[in-house]
């Protein structure tokens, strides 16, 4: 894979929300909005252990993270799609990851949410539109 | 399926963007932001015929449409997830559908985009959070 250019890394790191697509064990697609943290290498998100994304992991570790910003001026549409291998963050990494998560999203503290199933998403392919050069949307 | 309550129909109809999750023929999830039109019954979106969503349709007609609004005040998080059966809009319906699409998104005219693969998404199940009652996010 070509390394993620700095402008994309910044776009990903700044995002307050992204959407994760996964595949349910019955082969059906699923999607959920999540609050992502990016350490420059992996994306971390917390999902329900018993929800569709959590159950999806057991059958299909590939997940897709979509970071996009909509604008009614379509010359400003921006998106990064990350094709990823998902895995549960191992116990000895949970504290470090949650330090990053709580720093970016202090909301976790105020709503009293505890870690559920924290996923690390390792990127194996990506594409973008609207960020690196051509301002125009490139049809997928 | 329980009929979509009016508040959800309005949320879907008003959305400028939603994300469609599909499954590639190799079993991998895909996601793309699209500009949806809702006629009260089906969601219509236009995708590339040769892109991943278009190719996905050939192998797996189930697609999931995620309509969500992020807010840093997590009490205001809103989302509707529609589990759908996707199909290409038949030729004799394309004009009607594109009348709706161009009315909601006059941008299609200004960027000169023509219909590509126009999908109709028929909802067979749904869930929501943050719109109907409880303002708090319900973990999936």
Please tell me about this protein's structure:
The structure is a homodimer of 140-residue chains. Chain A is α+β, with helices and mostly antiparallel strands. Chain A has a single domain, classed as Electron Transport, Fmn-binding Protein, Chain A (Pnp Oxidase, Chain A), CATH 2.30.110.10. The first copy, chain A, is 25% helix and 37% strand. Chain A contains 4 helices and 7 strands, in the order αββββαββααβ. Chain A has a 7-stranded antiparallel sheet with strand order 2-1-5-6-7-4-3, sandwiched between helices. In chain A, a hairpin with a 5-residue loop joins strand 1 and strand 2. Chain A is globular. The mean pLDDT of chain A is 93. At the A-B interface, strand 1, strand 2, strand 5 and strand 6 of A face strand 1, strand 2, strand 5 and strand 6 of B.
């Amino acid at each position: 894979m070509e390394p993620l250019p700095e402008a994309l890394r910044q776009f990903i790191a700044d995002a307050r929300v992204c959407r994760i697509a996964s595949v349910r064990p019955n082969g059906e697609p699923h999607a959920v909005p999540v609050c992502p943290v990016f350490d420059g290498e992996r994306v971390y998100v917390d999902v329900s252990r018993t929800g569709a994304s959590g159950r999806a992991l057991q059958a299909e570790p590939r997940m897709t993270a979509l970071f996009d910003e909509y604008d009614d001026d379509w010359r400003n549409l921006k998106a990064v799609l990350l094709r990823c291998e998902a895995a549960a963050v191992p116990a000895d990494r949970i504290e470090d990851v949650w330090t990053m998560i709580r720093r970016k999203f202090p909301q976790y503290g105020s709503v009293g949410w505890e870690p559920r199933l924290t996923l690390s998403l390792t990127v194996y392919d990506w594409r973008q539109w609207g960020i690196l050069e051509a301002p125009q949307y490139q049809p997928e």
